[in-house]
Amino acid sequence: MLNPKILLIVTFVLASLQPLPVFAAEQPAQTSEQITQLDINSADADTIASVLIFVGMVKAREIVAYREMFGNFTSIDELAEVQGIGPATIERNRDRILVVND
Questions:
Q1: Which regions of the chain does DSSP assign to beta strands (E)?
Q2: 44: helix, coil or strand?
Q3: Does 93 fall in a domain?
Q4: φ, ψ at 97 (rounded to 5°)
Q5: pLDDT string in tens for the chain (102-residue length)
Q6: Rounded CA gap, 97 and 42, in Å?
Q7: Tell me, what's the pLDDT at 3?
Q8: Domain count, the chain
Q9: Domain residues for 46?
């Protein structure tokens, strides 16, 4: 039978040879998602719905209807005036939206 102290040392040495676990928070973010930007003043409802997060076809049509009724958006924050679009949706999509005025 092995000496308990030697067994403890051998166990410790073997355990230290194992790679340390890497937790998800420590891993670099790996994403293949390419962020697409759209001009909210010229995009159609299909494009808006496909590019913006948590904006489906109904909300996309509301954006287009608002733009047709009141004219081009002058800022991204003006999207909050559209029914169904709130500040959280705007913040999630801020890097996806361009406001181009000709």
A1: 38-39, 97-98
A2: coil
A3: yes
A4: -110, 130
A5: 667 777 667 666 666 665 555 454 444 555 556 778 999 999 999 999 999 999 999 999 999 999 999 999 999 999 999 999 999 999 999 999 999 987
A6: 11
A7: 77
A8: 1
A9: 38-98
Q: Say if 42 falls within a structural domain.
A: yes
Tokens describing residue 59: 């909300």
Task: Give the span between the Cα atoms of 10 and 5, in whole angstroms.
Answer: 9
pTM exceeding the 0.70 threshold for the entire prediction: no
Report the alpha-carbon distance of residue 83 to residue 5 in Å, rounded: 72
Taking the CB of residue 59, how many other CB atoms lie within 10 A of it?
A: 20
How is residue 82 annotated by DSSP? S
d(CA 7, CA 97): 63
Beta carbons of 63 and 90 less than 8 angstroms apart: no
> Going by DSSP bridges, is the β-strand pair 97-98/38-39 parallel, antiparallel, or unpaired?
parallel
- Whether 70 contacts 9, CB under 8 Å: no
Residue 44 resides in a domain = yes
In a domain, residue 27? The reply is no
